[in-house]
Write a structure and sequence with these properties.
Elements (H helix, E strand, L loop, with lengths): L32 E6 H6 L11 E5 H12 L1 H6 L3
Antiparallel strand pairs: 1-2
The structure holds zinc ion.
Length: 82
Amino acid sequence: MIIIIHESYLDSDGNALPMSEDTCGIEGCSAPAVKSYSAKVCIQAGLKPANDKAKRVHLCKEHNKELKKATKTDRLLESLGR
Ligand SMILES: [Zn+2]
């Protein structure tokens, strides 16, 4: 059996790249995505999805951090009227 490895799935060091090349779905951000959330959650956290029709939004490491922070302080923000 011959196994063909497509070069496009390997980076210059020969490491396999993830099959999907998702990038952050937040407006103005194109960092690689680490997680995806429903668009609703992102909007509630104060993030702005680039595609407002998307049901799921991919988030990069930084925006993932921001979302987690925002959802934790949700009640605080509400009390501040934001
Ligand atoms: Zn991002």
